[in-house]
Amino acid sequence: MADEIRAEMVANVWKVVASVGDSVSDGDTLVILESMKMEIPVIAESDGTVAQLAVGEGDVVQEGDLIAVIN
């Protein structure tokens, strides 16, 4: 079952750490968001493979926007 990772707040995508096809473990950082000069890591919530990255560096995400899908 695919695990969708979604933004919890409005923020800028500061850095994309993972790539499609990467194996990740629960707790691994996928993307780092920036909001109000704070860096917020977006972490994998399960073990699996990154199937989709829906954001790129410099993008602005809104609360609820899809960031990544892990299979």
Topology:
Elements: E1 3-6, E2 11-16, E3 23-24, E4 29-35, E5 38-43, E6 48-53, E7 60-61, E8 66-70
Antiparallel strand pairs: 1-8, 2-4, 2-7, 3-6, 4-5, 6-8
Describe the structure.
Strand 4 and strand 5 (38-43) form a beta hairpin. The model has no long low-confidence stretch (mean pLDDT 96). The protein is globular. It has no helices and 8 strands. By secondary structure, it is mainly β.
Question: Quick one: biggest sheet?
Answer: 4 strands, antiparallel
| Helical run tally | 0
Oligomeric description of these chains: single chain
Quantity of strands, as a count: 8
Shape: globular
Secondary-structure element order, as H and E?
EEEEEEEE
How much helical structure, as a percent, in the residues?
under 10%
| SS-derived structural category | mainly beta
The pLDDT mean sits at 96
What is the radius of gyration? Answer: 11 Å
Strand content: over 45%
Strand order of the largest sheet: 1-8-6-3
Give the low-pLDDT segments: none
Distance between the termini: 6 Å
Summarize the structure.
The chain is mostly beta strands. The chain has strands at 3-6, 11-16, 23-24, 29-35, 38-43, 48-53, 60-61, 66-70.
Characteristics:
single chain, four-stranded antiparallel sheet, 54% strand, 71 residues, mainly beta
